[in-house]
Each structure stands twice: as structure tokens, then as C-alpha cells.
Queue: 2 jobs
Job 1
Amino acid sequence: MDSYAVFGHPINHSRSPFIHQRFAAQTEQALKYRAIEAPLDDFAKTVEAFFQGDGKGANVTVPFKEQAFALCTEVSERASRAGAVNTLVKTANGEIHGDNTDGIGLVTDLLNKQVTLSNSRILLLGAGGAARGVILPLLAQQPASIVISNRTVSKAQALVELFDHSALSASDLTQLDNYQFDLIINATSAGLSGNMPSLSSKCLHDDTVCYDMVYMKGQTPFNQWASQNGVKQCFDGLGMLVEQAAESFFIWRGVKPNTQMILSELRTML
Ligand code: NDP
């Protein structure tokens, strides 16, 4: 039976084994999928051993996505621009190819939720790995603009320089008062510690949609703030998690699983 895994540290919280086992059952694919905790100083060797055995493909999560990028023989354009890999594939000649499905996972989830991206004014909060990974797939939807804003503004400016696209600009969080956005994506990890970036409610209009990449039981701090300020549509990142997994599954197996049933199941498990 073909073997797949997710590598991370820590990894016992990972929902990926549950998601991929459900995908496999639903699409009648015979495969195994497990979580492997790689030592912090030995990621590459752990992955190599997996692929020298029966490993056919893998996901990679925190904190190894950049190291995964470095060990690939070849990477996709979207992984190259993200500077990080979350999906590994062993090719027929034994090489390891890398891809990044986080960005397409976000875009698919937003489109599933009928959020308009084309011609939209988007505010992207954060300038870490997650923000970097979604810029190219968001630009592919031809938004009117994407303003990147981050607590450390120099990192937002560095992303704008890296992607070098006319729709992109960087702004200090404190200087957003004069702009209103159609979609605000929180790609910071602030929610994990019960916080949110300090953002003015002047950025909101009557139909602004808010999306937090963080997910948890109940509303995230960012979505609480949005709701309290009248935002009617607030989403968390659970759908992104399932959609990035579905894209990895498609890369490995050539079939697209149905994501909506699994999403509902996962929601009840939070
Ligand atoms: P990084 O550590 O690379 O970046 C963290 C970002 O959050 C930085 O921009 C940092 O700002 C900002 N930040 C952290 N704390 C605060 C705070 N208190 N106030 C304001 N800004 C803050 O993380 P990633 O980019 O890899 O991940 C970001 C989040 O996205 C994580 O919570 C992760 O769980 C989530 N994620 C969700 C996915 C999904 O499928 N749903 C997929 C990938 C990520 P600064 O630069 O100033 O430090």
C-alpha cells in the first residue's frame, strides 16, 4: 500500500491524518497516511528515510516548510515564489519534487464561500510564511489591489519588493485609516495567543469580508473584533486547511476529494 505522511514538530495536534484518511476512503484510494514528528535538527534525514522506504508523498508543516523547499530536486513556480514547500512527491526516478498548496487552498476556500476576489481591494495582515505563500494565488485572481500590512513593516515592504507587482503595496498598520477594504485576510499568528493586529475599524465598509487563517473552537479574536464592528461575513482558516490538503491529495493521486463533508466533521471536532 502506498504510504504518505505529514512531518512537523510538534505533530500530535495535526488534523492531516484524519483528513487524508477520509479523502482516501471517499475516493476509494488504497493508501496509508500517518503523522511523523521529525527531530528539530534532523528533518532532512527523517524525510529521506521515509522516501527510501515505502513513502510516496508527504505534507510538511511548522517549522519545516523552508527546509523542505531546500531538499527538493525541483519545485513548482508557486512553491518557488512562496519560498516554502508543504507537499512532497517522490517521482518515478526517485527524485523529490516540492509544491505549495497553502495559497490555492485559501483561494479555493474563499471562492467556495462566494467571496469575490477579482477586482477586490484586499488587505493582507502579516508578512510571515503564510502571507508570502498566498500572494501569488491571490494575484492570479486579479484583485484591484493587495495592501500588505505587518507589525514589522519592513517585512511587508520586503514582500512587495520580492513579488514586484503593480497591484501590491505595503503599509504601516497605523496608516490604514483612510482605506476601506472589500476583504481583509489575517495571516498573522496573533490569534494563537489571543491577540489580533491593531487595526482600525475605519478599514471596514458595509460589505467587507474578514478571513482569519487561524481556526479554533468558537470565533478567533480577529473575527470577534470583525463581528463586533458589524462585519456580516467572517470565516476562519479551517476551510483553507481542508482545501490545501485536497490539492495535495490531487497532486499525489490524481483525484479531487469532496471537501465539504470533511469540513463539517472537522468543525465538530475542534
Ligand atoms: P510566521 O511565524 O511566519 O509569521 C507570523 C506573522 O504574524 C508575522 O507577520 C508576525 O508579525 C505576525 N504576528 C505574530 N504575533 C502578532 C501580534 N501579536 N500582533 C500582530 N502581528 C503578529 O507564521 P506563518 O506565516 O507561518 O503563519 C501565520 C498563521 O497562519 C499561523 O497562525 C498559522 O497557524 C496560520 N496558517 C493557517 C493555515 C491554514 O491552513 N488554515 C496554513 C498556514 C498557516 P512580525 O513580522 O511583526 O513578527
Job 2
Amino acid sequence: MKGWHGKFLRVNLSNGEITTQSFDEEYARKYLGGRGFAAKILWDELRPGVDPLGPENKLVFAFGPLTGMALPSSSKIVVAAKSPLTGGYGDGNLGTKFAVQLRKAGYDGIIIEGKADSPVYIHINDNDVNILPAVDLWGKGYYETHEILEKEYGSNAGIVGIGPAGENLVKFAVVRSQEGRAGGRPGMGAVMGSKNLKAIVAQGSHDFPLADPETIKTEGKVGYDEVKKASAYEHWMRQGTTMVLAWCNETSTLPVKNFFYGTWDQAKGIDGEMLEKLTIARYGCPRCNMRCGLTIKDENDQESELDYENIGMLGSNLLVSNLTKVGTLNRMADDYGLDTISLGSVMGFAAECSEKGIIDEKIEWGDTEGFKELVRKITFREGIGDLLAEGTKKAAEKLGNDTLHFAMQVKGLEVSAYNCYTTPGMALSFGTSPIGAHHKDAWVISWEVQTGRDSYGPEKAAKVIEFQRIRGGMFESLTTCRFRWIELGFSLDWYPKYLEAATGMKWTLDDLWEIGDRIYALIRAFWVREFQDKWSKEMDYPPERWFDPLPEGPLAGTKLEKEKYDQLLSEYYKQRGWDERGIPTKSTLAKLGLEEVALELENYVTLKE
Ligand code: PTT
Ligand code: SF4
């Protein structure tokens, strides 16, 4: 087989067993890689109802046939498991040397199962795989952990790991890698911590299994060159994702004061222009020539890599108006291994609870010192931090007092930095994202603002599905970075060409959309199997706050209309071939080649024809 090694590595941390498992071309063609492989493995191997933080849960790292090659922005890897934050399917995506090296080691992914008796890390050098003690690393921040392992194995080694937040099972702990790389928002770092696994190091010496290496080389080079000619390239290199902040402020979609407002008169202090002034370094993923990891010095003179999401959630959402201070909170999150989006949301939620007298602790808007202390308490689960470490949904359920109304989450995962009082299409995107409220699968907000926010028409559902196919299906399975396409207009037509050169098989974009639909149906089946009779359409609803009128700004008074949102959601289900509850029908599953999924799912819910 060309394009894939056809092999997963399986490491059982309970009994130390290390094995490999092969797959064939049919499997590869059907699930492609990355999210496709991860979803299939978790569906096949997890019994419904397993404790996400118990030894029975499995942590999967997987990539696709383009990862690691000399192709534009091709060093991404997906990390997935049953999520301790949501109880459903969870995953995230990192660009890292670890992806490249693991591929060179001869695998298409790793499945980690069981739980070690004491802290360990895994070292992979081709087929020499060892589980080694990590007692001395346990308790250390991620930066120091990475440095120690890099000293031991050299700067070419690929490394992923967790900080103290993952060790302490904070439900939104992420997996970290080099510089500011972080992935797995729905608690993938906590799953790693629950297995007593501090880090994984990969080193490989194999060639990539390519059908046509010459075309990869020549066409890859054309792809690299094309990006540099894009009109947006120069601005991108200066501001990266942070250019979005000023746009959100202009369009009333910035999260301000726990998403209460959509605009802020102090946004200038933290926007892309400010970042430009303060930038001291640029990092990024391997194999990328549009590196976006813009880095500043924080209050303690330490490096902090900032993206829009980090700034929106730890800046405007908490009324912190100084970028250097935002940098400090971000650096702490990176070192402790916390997801910045959920962290900013949970701290905004706590500040609002404090303001309303629902909790006794004094947590004040804009008070960076107070927020720094709160980040520490969350990481080490001290006092109120222990409750907040569970995420906004569980914290709100415990606190009562209608706090769920302003817990900014869907299915338990906190909403990323786009405020949706005025954008029903983007609200639908958050509502139907396969991991809870993340923008990664369908960032339709820019299209929606340009084409008309008022509409709840079928074109909105169609756009969300189109983007979910491209971003959530294709890019998450290939696994390459989507920024070339979304930010610089790199044509999608490149990807079937690259795939053909890698695998020797013919591909069309339609093939890739079908894979996307298959993965979406499979992940939806995973959720339904977990929740069974508790599954309902309301699980795809956005936070209640957006059904209140926006209190201030040029669009004051605008709100999401619940009845219309519900109709839009029904339209989305119809276009996907899912029933009124949002469950794929038998015929949809059959059309996607998922007959065996339908058979299994029928043990838990009645499927519509
Ligand atoms: C992603 C989410 C995002 S989305 C951001 S900023 W973004 C936050 N970054 C965090 C961080 O940093 N530190 C931290 N401790 N927590 C963080 N949480 C937040 O995590 C990232 C880039 C970005 S930056 C984005 S959008 C794109 N994401 C891609 C994706 O998902 N798939 C894909 N095929 N290509 C993508 N390209 C871009 O990659 P999650 P990275 Mg991240 C400091 O993982 O769980 O999906 O959450 O991967 O290597 O860091 O690159 O404005
Ligand atoms: Fe990584 Fe940014 Fe390059 Fe994408 S554009 S591959 S996130 S450095």
C-alpha cells in the first residue's frame, strides 16, 4: 500500500504490552487518517459509558497520508479520546515535529490504553518502543519537561506531553508540544494524565510510503511558492490570526465580559497592531512557510505565543486590556497545559458569579493578579479552582441559580472567541460541531457577516455543512493545516493532486466530502450511543445568553430567535440525512457504508428508516 504504512502502534500501559495492528487499503480509503482513524478506533473499541478518566478509555494520536511530507503546512496530528469534559467524542489538532517523527518511525498513529502504576513516558525509535519512568518529570511545567526531553533525545526528536493541569485531571487540560503548540481542547491532556503518561517522544528513520515522490517534490514546491504570492501573505505574516480581533470588535462579535457585550472601547490595547509592535519572535509548525506563532515577552520577560483565541478569551472576555498581561496568563496556560479558550470562559463565568454574589470569592474584571491566582487554583484544584476545573457546564449545574444561562458552552465544551447574538449561522456551527462548541469545523461567521446575518434560511445550514466537510472532514483527516486555504486562498484542488501522488489512487473533492460526511455520521453515532435516552435536540442548542438582546453597541437589541434557530437546526438535520432528533437515519448510514454502525446503534436507540 502506498500513502500509508498500514500500521498503528498499540501501547498498553497497564500490562506493558506493545503491539502493532495493521489495516488495509479499504480501511484507509474509507477513513483517510487523523480524525477519520481516531473516530473509527474509538467507535470500535470503547464500550459505551466508560469512565473517560479510567483505564478503559483510549487515547489515540493519528494523522493522514499527507502528514510530514515536503508539502505545504503538512505536520498536523489529531489527538482524540472520549472527553472527560463533555462525555462525548473529543479531539484536537497540533502541528508538531512529533507528527513527522512518528510517521518516520513507521506508524499511522498510536493507540494508548490502560494506566501505568506510576508516572511514565513512552519513547519510540522506529520499532524499538519503551515505557520509561517519568517520576522526575511529574509535577513539572510543560516548558521544562520539553527542555529535559529535548536535551536527552536531541532537537530533532518529536515530543508531546502534559503540564500539571493534565496530571491533576483538569477537564480542559490540553496536550502540548514545541513552543506554543497545544491541542485537544476537550480534555485530551486530562486523559493522558489519567493514564499516568507525562510525555511521548518519537524518533524515526523510515522513508514515507509514497507512490510518486517526484510529483510530491515538484508540486509541493509550486504550492509553497504560490502562498508567498498571495495578496494577504504580507499582512498575515505580520499579524497572523490576531488580525481577527479588530474585525470582531467592528462587527459586534467580540467576546467581552463573559460574552455579555460584543464590542469594547479598549480593544486597541490587545489587537493585531499592538501584537505587531510587541512581537519578538515567530514560531510555527514544521513544513510551513507562513508560520503564524507570533510571540511577545510577557510581564516576567518570558516568551508567550499568541493567537486570536488566546487574546479574545484571556483579554476582552476578562476585560484585561494590556497585551503583555494577556501574555502572562497565556504563558501560564501553556506551561500548566490548560486550554486557553475554556480557561478564559470559566474565569469569565466565575467573575460574573462573583459580581452577582453567587459565589463568595472576590473575582474582579480586569484584575490580572486575581486571574493569575485563579489560573493556579484551577490547575492545582484548590478552593473554587476545584469546581472551575470541571468546566463551566458542570460548575453551573452545581451552583444552580440559573447560572447555566451564562455558562458559555455547548455540550460542555466552552465556546471559542466569537460572540453570536447576531450570527445564527455561526451559532449553528457551534451547536453542531462534533466536539462541542469549537469554531474549527465551520468558521462561517465571516461569510455570514458579508452575506446577511438576519437570515435563518437553508443556505446557512448548507454553508455550515460545506465548511464542516472541508475543515472538519478533509483537513482533519489529511491532516494538513487549513490556514493556507482559509487565509491565503490556496486552492482546495491541490489536495486531490497531492493525495494521488502520495497514494497512487485517484481522488476527487467529492470523495473527500463523502469521507467528511461519513466521519460526521460516525461521531454523531458515538455521541448518541453514549447519551442514549438522554440525547435530545437541545444538545445542539447554543448558550442561552445569545437568546437575550445584545445590550450595547451598533447592533444593540439584536438576539438569536429560539424558534427560528430550532427550524434552522431541523433544516441542517434534513440536509445531512439525520432525523428530527439529529440522529443519522438507517439509509444515511447505509449510503455512507456504515451499516454495521446502524446495527450497533439500534441496541441503544430506535433508528428511523
Ligand atoms: C485549538 C484552539 C485554538 S484554535 C487556539 S488559538 W486558533 C488556542 N490555542 C491554545 C494555545 O496556544 N495554548 C493553550 N494552552 N491552549 C490553546 N487553546 C486553543 O486551542 C494552531 C493553529 C490554529 S491557532 C488554528 S485556529 C488552526 N487550527 C487547525 C485545526 O484545528 N485543524 C487543522 N487541520 N489546521 C489548523 N490550523 C490552525 O492551527 P484544538 P497548533 Mg491547536 C498558545 O488544537 O484542540 O483544535 O484547539 O494546534 O499546532 O497549536 O496550531 O486562532
Ligand atoms: Fe502551523 Fe500556522 Fe503554519 Fe498552520 S499556518 S501550519 S498553524 S504555523
